[in-house]
Amino acid sequence: MSIKQLSETLINQIAAGEVIERPASAAKELIENALDAGATRIEIATSGGGKSLLRVSDNGSGMDEADLELAVRRHCTSKISTTLDDIQTLGFRGEALPSIGSVARLSISSRRRDSDGGAEIAVAGGKLQHLRPAALNPGTIVEVRDLFFATPARLKFLKTEKAEAAAITEIVKRMAIAFPQVRFVLSGTDRTTLEFPATGDDHLARMAQILGKDFRDNAIEINAEREDVTLTGFAGVPTFNRGNAAHQYAFVNGRPVQDKLVLSAIRGAYAETIPSGRYAVAVLSIGLDPALVDVNVHPAKSDVRFRDPQLVRGLIVGAIREALARDGSRAATTGADGMLRAFRPGFQPNGYRAPPQQQPWSAATSPSRPYGATANGGFGERPQASFDGLTMPTARAEMAQTETWTAPAPHVAAAGSPMPATETEAPARFPLGAARAQIHENYIVAQTENGLVIVDQHAAHERLVFEAMRKALHSKRLASQVLLIPEIIDLPEEDCDRLMQFSAELGELGLAIERFGPGAIAVRETPAMLGEVDAPGLIRQLADEIAEWDTASGLSAKLEYVAATMACHGSVRSGRRLRPEEMNALLRQMEVTPGSGQCNHGRPTYIELKLSDIERLFGRS
User: Which of 249, 288, 329, 549 has a CA between 20 and 30 Å from the CA of residue 516?
Assistant: First the structure.
């Protein structure tokens, strides 16, 4: 079979299969062109989810007839010249417009700011229709109709109009966050008008437009630098989380990206602070020398490759954890909002309806005490919890001993009683105020300078114990258990090489490994905290993690999970009555402990109500 040169139209259609996957892809390319042209106002109109019509209008620099004629040709661009090492623009490949023109009906009208008139060019199915003068204001209008009419098979793979419209909305939101100085308007017959006014240099105001006004009140500023790589942005407190990762936005040199390394780093930074299945809300911007990042990985330009991925990952994890330690102990404001809604007349959680006749309270119908509770609210003997064959006392012995608060003998005063007159704690002196009462033998009520705080004593102390254990984990080499017979695991030679690069770090965590021939690893010691370990499974999991992420953090995560479980079982239990000094000691330690605003499972440890909110409930404001 002889080799033939493909036609220009077929080449463009093949390229369109990579560049233009759906209407949202076309919208992304056109918005990027408008931003590269210096536009300060961009309007996007759609119909039929972008399949029938997609129009992008801007007030950018515009083009003349000569530029328009070249713009619809493949690999013609004004953004790069000879090298890919210094890309300063969003677009640079010169493929988007000819790709769109090969599968749709494309028309471009444009006028330079210094020109007396504009011009219009039209392409349909890869064929030039006309190039003629046109009257319009300075800027550019790109109109795409009947997307994929020239390749009908692609239409079968598109989703519903509503889903395609939602994808375009998500593209506009990402661009709006990246460029707060630009006004975006999204409208059309298939949607209500969505407008994002320009906010100038106030990035947090633009984020609040996209993520909701609650984000402003629950965001922690991120500002870090390491080896000429900068990280800026905002991350939500752990208790301000969502059900998916759609509210995590990442940008590299101003370019919106959806990079696995960045998303993995965000997940790692919030480990043990967010419940399973929940995701942090974050907007992060990474700035570095363009030569240190490859944005030409895929024609869609949403994936990037860093020259030093471990540096970038470490910067993200370290910066977020430092920010959480500095300011992440506060609870999300949404908790207080939910409480206020619950107090309003007519509130019924989850559609609950009270039965027509309530049964009177009696001892027979009262809730049973917590497991092991004694009559005075204390606890009797409990069986020792076991973790993979390692009992609780043994597991704790393996941890470095650190000073932490422990509750003395329980106080037998009536729960909910006010503090005695000898109480000297002043609410104005402390962020979490002074303890005033304990209700239902589990919740501490504290008075602050301008409101009150309700603390879940078990969840709060659980977090304090876990942070003490986490500190012990990282303070020195962890205790290990020597295997009587070393475990030999057969692995591909490249996996063995990767594991041995991290042998020192793994050794600090109690996992001692060494080479055993060209294609095997010998495991001689395992972390004592883990008890009986599936060594082959652990080693293969670490090898896969290193191959994908160039990091061996999985073992550390396993150890922290065990520590979190131990902390849960070793904390002050619900149903324990505390003395005033015990409550205040707990509050004071919460104020100096990182991440004390949520327990190890991600639930809030306290809720704060402002005095103004309380007065509003009683109609006093």
Answer: 549
Amino acid at 512: A
Token pair, residue 36, equals 């590269």
Interval 353-409: pLDDT, tens: 444 444 433 333 333 333 333 333 333 333 333 333 333 333 344 443 333 344 443
Token digits for 376?
Answer: 């005075």
How is residue 420 annotated by DSSP? P
CA distances for 528 relative to 98, 383, 473, 522, angstroms: 62, 21, 12, 17
> Using only C-alpha atoms, what is the Rg of the chain?
30
Question: In which element (H, E) is residue 591 found?
Answer: helix 580-592
State the residue for tokens 């930074």. Answer: 269
User: What's the CA gap between 445 and 437, in Å, rounded?
Assistant: 5
What tokens does 52 get?
């029938």
Mean pLDDT of the chain: 79
Q: Helices 96-103 and 8-19, interaxial angle, to 10°?
A: 110
* Pairing mode of beta strands 520-527, 512-515: antiparallel
The answer to whether the pTM exceeds 0.70 is no
Domain 479-566 has CATH 3.40.1080.10: no
Question: Helix (H, G, I), strand (E, B), or coil: what is residue 104?
Answer: coil
Domain 203-327: give its CATH architecture: 2-Layer Sandwich (3.30)
